[in-house]
Amino acid sequence: MVLWVFSYGSLIWNPGFDFDERIVGFIKGYRRVFDLACIDHRGTPENPARTCTVEAKDGTVCWGAAYCVRGNEEREKAAMQYLERRECEYDQKTIVNFYKEGDTLEPAVTGVLVFTSTPDKESNKYYLGPASLEDMAMQIATAKGPCGNNRDYLFLLEKALRNIGHEDDYVTELAEEVRKVLESLEEKPGANLIPPSSPSKPFAHLLPLQETAVAAD
Predict the structure, then answer these.
(1) Dihedrals φ, ψ of 116, to 5°?
(2) What is the DSSP-derived secondary structure letter of residue 206?
(3) Given 55, 74, 87, 186, which residue is catalytic?
(4) Where does the record say this protein resides (predicted)?
(5) Among 117, 164, 206, 212, which has the minimal tally of Cβ within 10 Å of its Cβ?
(6) pLDDT, greater one: 208 or 58
(7) Strand, coil or helix: what is 200?
(8) 113-148 pLDDT, tens digit each
(9) Residue 76 has what DSSP assignment?
(10) Is 87 a catalytic residue?
(11) pLDDT for the residue numbered 190
(12) Cα(28)–Cα(97) distance, rounded to whole angstroms?
C-alpha cells in the first residue's frame, strides 16, 4: 500500500511521522490562507490562534511538499492516526493531483491526500474566515498555546517556504505585519496583548481541551 500526503503548513518542516520519500511541488486550484482557528496547539479557546488552510481558487497553485509512506498497512495506519490527531481542526480530507517543478501538465503523483477545511462558520466550528491584514497580525502576534506562540508557527512557515525555494507573498506580507505589531507592543510595555476584536471565549463550547495535543505545530 502507498499513502501520499501533501503538506502546506507545519508538516513541511516538521512532518512528525515516518515516511519514505519527500517531494517538493504544488497542487493546482488552491491557495494558502490563515482562516482556521487553533485552540489546542498554538492558541486557546479564549484566544485562538490563526493557522493556515487552503481554499479553492481557480488559476492558483499552492507550493509545499508531498510525503510518501510505503510498505504495509500498519505503517500507513500509524501515519494516518497521527495526522488525524494533529490535524483535528481540519474537517475534510481531499484527494488531489500533485505536480513537480518543471512539469505543470502531467501530475507527478495522483491520489494525494490533503487536509482541508469547509469555508463555512455554520458547518465548520474551527473556520474563522478572512479578516483584515492588521486584525490577523494582531491575533497571530498575541496568541499562544501548549505548543508555543502563534507567531512562531507563521515565521517557521515563512522560513520553510523560503527553504524549498517557493516563498508565498501572502505569508511574507502577513509575517512582516506581525513583526510590526511585535515592535509596537515592545514599545508599549504592559499593553493589552489580547486582540480587542476577539470575542470573549469564542470557543468555550469546545472545552475541555483535547488530551492528545500533538507537540508539532
Answers:
(1) -130, 175
(2) G
(3) 87
(4) Cytoplasm
(5) 212
(6) 58
(7) coil
(8) 999 999 999 999 999 999 999 999 999 999 999 999
(9) H
(10) yes
(11) 57
(12) 8
